[in-house]
Every structure is written in C-alpha cells, then in structure tokens.
Amino acid sequence: MPLTISRHKKRYILPIIIFVFILMTTYSWLSKTFQTDELKRSAELSAELAILQRKANAENEVAAGFRRVIDYLKFDIEYYEWSALKWMLSDDSLHNVKQLAFEVHLFPPPFESEIEIV
Q1: Where are the transmembrane segments (predicted)?
Q2: Could you tell me the residue ranges of all domains in the chain?
C-alpha cells in the first residue's frame, strides 16, 4: 500500500526538511568547534607537560652536578670576587670543591674621567 500524504500535510514537509537540515548543520559545526577547542587544549597541555619534563630533567642534571666533586676551581671576575665568594658560600655551592683559586682586587678600577691623558 503506497504512502499517501494529504495536501494539508504536504505544506509542512519542506519546512521540516529545512529545519532538520539546519539542526544537522548546526550540530556538525558545534561538534567541530568543540573538537577544535579540545585539540587546542590538548596541544597546550602537551606543550606544558614537555616544558615541565625539560625542567625536571634540567633540575636532575643540576642535582647531579652538585654531587660531582670539583678538584680545582679558579675564577677571575675583576673586582667582583668578594660578592661572588659571599654568594657561593651562602648557598653552599662550594661544598664539593677541593681547592679554590681567584685573584683579589682590593680597589675598583679608576673611572675614565679620573685618568689623565698625557
């Protein structure tokens, strides 16, 4: 038995088809938008995780470096020896150094304005 549609119902078919099409299109667009946002967030989280892993690796390398024994450490940093030595002693950077050598400068260099040109 063929399906018959009355004339009264025929006028509603096209608007219903259009409405369903709009709903499907909107749903498709929204799902793609949410997927894109999720992919972006996933990429951001992956990047943050990679940064944290690099930091952890760097901290492990630094920690391994602090465990290493340094037989002889020499530095010459022109007039900043005392502040550098104070800093290294305050954070216990020299705990694994056997010998330490550095030049001592008691007075800062003269300023250019005080130098006489002969």
Answers
A1: 12-30
A2: 10-67, 69-118
